[in-house]
Request: fold
Amino acid sequence: MEVTDVRGRFLTIGHPRVILGAVAVGILSGSGAIVFRFLATRLPRLIWPADPNLVHAVAQAPLWWRIVVPVAGSFLAGAVLTFGTRWLGPVRGWDILEAVLLRDGVLHLRPALVKSLSSLLTTASAGPIGREGPMVLLAAAVASFAGRYLGFPTRHLRILVACGVAAGIACAYNTPIGAAFFTMEIIVGNFALEVFAPLVFASVVATLLSSAVFGATPVFQVSEFALASRWEILNYMLLGVLGGVTAAVFLEALRASFLLFRRSRLPRPVAMSLAGLIVGIVILGFPQVVGNGREAIRDLFQEEWGPRLALTLLALRLVATSVTVGSGAVGGVFTPTLFLGAVLGDAFGSIVHRLFPLATAVPKAYALAGMGCLLAGTTHAPITAVLMIFEMTLNYSITLPLLVATVAASLVAKGLSLESVYTEALSRKRSAWAEGGEAAVMRTLTVRDVMRSEQMTVPADTPLPQLLDRFIATRRNHLYVVGPDGRFEGVVSLHDANRALREVEDPSQFRATDFANSNFQTTVPWEHLDHVLDRFWVQEAEHLPVLGGRDSHKLIGTISRRDILGVYSLEVLHRRSLLARFETEEGPQSGPTYVELPPDHQIDNVPVPATLVGRTIGESRFREHYGVSVLLIRRTDGGGREIRMIPDSSTKFQVGDRLVVFGSREKVDALKQQ
Reply:
């Protein structure tokens, strides 16, 4: 049985081979994640004073060491990424959502290893980001490699990569149920049993392996908490609102930091060492900010911090993690998010407990709920947040307030920020993809190029029985209602008309205008096809009416989803796969020339990588490092005019250059990610 979610993503079929593959992925990916977790735990102890708690170790280090280590470690981590790019080509494969949704489950193993090595250096130098992100990446890359090596089809490969994600999360937190639901809710977007079964097998196997190596104790050991009174549920609801706002601020800080470092065009090692300097300055006085935050959360549940210290750490952690991630460091934000939620909840709980000591629980109960709030707010996944907190603490006594707080946080955060922390990177990749030839075609073609003049219309005063006869004659599900002057008044659906016929006593008394939906999606001739496709997602219909203008409301034609997809297939897929079209300066009147390209090759337009600005083509060894050839450089002069240059080895790249390149699809797509 094939399963597809509402967004049309082809997922999986119930097949024993998938279950066996999930078990194998649980073993292989889980083993890779265990090795990474072991290294990430041991390496910091080689650099900082001997203490299993990283926060305490950093607190014991000399002040100058707290500056030097983050700067040097960040620089080395950036150098690994830079040289990894030169040796392997562009280092791809970081965005798991992209691999599952856009790249058919393909995650390359060697780039994942390079990124894992870089992440280990950041972790060893106490970088304030999570080690769980690279651990999950490595597990998913192992799953993708195994699936491709064994020849799994695309629909199965996507599920195996999702199983790798579940295995990695399960190894990180000993949370088999939460790992499976995290993957279903965030990565796959589907709760079908056919998807759930392999994820459970993979996460359970990985959890068994992890517990055998690291033990089966919960991540955070906390006391049993309960509501002090029924009215206290309102406090947790308010905490959820604050958590949602904080989550949105955190997401915005991540975006702002990413854009700031991107616009600075600093080499990655320099950018990351600058972020390391900021972190070093912060931990001079507040060592609780170091690492992923796991040790600091444990300290919070054992100590009394007070609202002032908690809020200070909230602000510092938000800045430190944002600049580290934005600089290009490889790491996750899952555990740092838990830290932000814990200190927010602890501060909030301390305040309300001082105001109402008899009617509120201890502040640590709010810290536990705050962890769920920030997790739900940043992921937009309240179910996952609740399950993860339950499994990480094995504390089920705070179920009701945790449910209320996480749902409130998720609603508020989603209202303030449409993208979650996991879909943000995917959105950027889709924006980058939109700069390529596919979306360019859809943006240059308009409704006028595709619309049909024929229309299935009925006068506004058509009686209901005749309206049904018209439906039968046209064999359409929707008819357009027009007034005497041709003005569009709405759409009548066959379902509404049929229901009205059964419910009304005298059908002849009702007219088409009585059932017309005036809010039906419409378009105009000059609207681009990429925007029209968005309207089709909103309106479940095969055709949309085309109006002469937004003000005139005169119906002049229709446009169908099938015609748009036909244009896409003709103009994009066929052209990209087979032909490149060239025109002379005189324009198309002189006759275009078509050149057939090799299979899986393309000509595309990409921005110049920031690391190459100021270097010549010869110095950068462009062809050797990126695997593509530069055919043309498009550059804008001081007057805003475009200059097209045929480059040679001495041509220097400048800021704002766009390169017309030729190469394999894989290499060109990889270059776009730089």
About this structure: The longest helix spans residues 16-47. The CA atoms of residues 279 and 428 lie 26 Å apart. The two ends are 40 Å apart (CA to CA). The chain has a mean pLDDT of 78.
